[in-house]
Structures are given as structure tokens and as C-alpha cells.
Amino acid sequence: MARLNLIADVHGNLPALEAVLDELPKAKTLHLGDVVGYNPYPKEVIELLQERRIASVMGNHDNAVLTGDVSWFNPVAARAILWTREHLSEEELAYLASLPLEIKNEVCAVHGSPRRRLEEYVFPDYPDEVLSGFLKLAGRRILAMGHTHVPFWRRVGDALVVNPGSVGQPRDGDARASFASIDLSTLEVEIVRVEYDISRVAREILRAGLPAVLAQRLFEGY
Fold first, then answer.
1. Under a CB-based contact definition with an 8 Å cutoff, are residues 36 and 46 in contact?
2. For the chain, which terminus, N or C, has the lower number of CB atoms within 10 Å?
3. DSSP state, 19?
4. d(C-alpha 78, C-alpha 72), whole Å
5. What is the mean pLDDT of residues 26-41?
6. What's the pTM value of the predicted model, to 2 decimals?
């Protein structure tokens, strides 16, 4: 049975990524952007994704770390982006710069949407008509997106739209890390939640001098 795993929005959360990788079915895995931001392990997350050869598209936080432009971000996110920028080596920044805006193979993978690949949020309540338009732009039977940190999947005709939720900072009220696994023959999707050591991440957020709200929100899944 051919499968594809999707992860997204790791956001520098190494313990969450390690826990998810331990639970992934044996299959190719794609990451849907935002390798870094918010959490205090950007170097380690980049190293692990490279070690596991997990391809990733670029996310808006990845791009902001490269450019230093935080004008579109709230003060908490901006502070984390600038902290991350200061703590990455030239080689690690080069890795972020190498990430494409889109990957097309079995799926079309983007961070936001096929229309605005870095910025657009596509939520579960979007109408089928809009999702159908995105699928036409994608040119694939499966469209995979991240960015919202809210998992969902929906069949639109004979095609599939899926968001695996966030590994590193869930925002659907469930604090557990999230990933998706797709049966490529039937387009059935399993959204899986994985517990990890949130307290460890929270302590490191505070030790690093990042905003305390970034630690608190991990416990609440928002």
C-alpha cells in the first residue's frame, strides 16, 4: 500500500518533531513549511530534517528569518523570528534559502495556498468551490497545505485537500503534535496526534529569553 506522510509547521520544536518521527508509518514524508520560528531548537530541527532527508517547502517564518523583515508579524512572532535569525549559522540560513515555494510530485505541496504560497490561510470551513479552484491551480489530485496549524482533510470530487496540522505549535485546542498519513490509492487520510514533552520545550523557551506566551500556548494548543 503506497502511503505519503505529511508534517508541517515544526517551528523549531525538536521534542515534538522527534516524537512525530517515531510514530510515522514507513513512507515518504514531506514537510509543508515553517521549519523555524516560535520555538528554541531551530538548529537541531534543521539538522534532523536534513539527516532524515525530509523535503520541505518554504514557510513564511522561514522566509522572514532569511530576510529579517518582520513587518507583517505580531510582536511575539517577530521577536522569535529575530531570535532565530541571530542563532543560525550561514550554513543553516543557506538551507532555509534552498527551500522551494512549491513541491510537485505525487502531490502539490505548499505552505499557504497555490494562490499565495507563503501567506494565505486555508481553514477547514472553506467552501468546496474555493478548494476546487485551488486544486486546479495545483494541477494535482492531492493538494497539501500547512500554515493554519489546524488539521483537516476533505474530498473534493475525486481529489483531496489536506492539512496535517502543526508538529510544533498546534492551534486547534489539542496540545499534541499532529501529522497526516495518506493512502495514495484510496485517498483516505489518517490524522494522528502524538504526545511529547511540552514542559521541556517550555523551560527552554524561557531559558532562551523568548516570550513566555510561547511556552504557555503549547500547553493549551492554541
1. yes
2. N
3. H
4. 8
5. 98
6. 0.97
- Are the C-beta atoms of residues 58 and 101 closer than 8 Å to each other? yes
> Which residues, listed in sequence order, are joined to residue 28 by a DSSP beta bridge?
4
Q: Which alpha helices (DSSP H) does the chain contain, by range?
A: 14-23, 42-51, 60-67, 75-86, 90-98, 128-138, 198-208, 212-220
| 1 pLDDT tier (thresholds 50, 70, 90) | low
Which residue from 81, 99, 86 is spatially nearest to 12, judged by alpha carbons?
Answer: 81
Residue type present at position 82: L
**Side by side, which strands form the sheet with 108-109?**
103-104, 108-109, 142-144, 159-163, 152-156
pLDDT in tens, 63-79: 999 999 999 999 999 99
122-169 per-position pLDDT tens digit:
999 999 999 999 999 999 999 999 999 999 999 999 999 999 999 999
- Structural domains in the chain? 3-105+167-220 (3.60.21.10)
CA distance 208 to 137: 41
Mean pLDDT of 188-200: 98
CA distances 48 to 35, 44, 114, 186, Å, are 11, 6, 27, 31
Residue 150 φ/ψ, nearest 5 degrees: -120, 115
Residues 177-193 have a mean pLDDT of 97
Grid cell, residue 21, equals 518521527
Cβ-based neighbours of 71, under 8 Å, separated by 6 or more: none
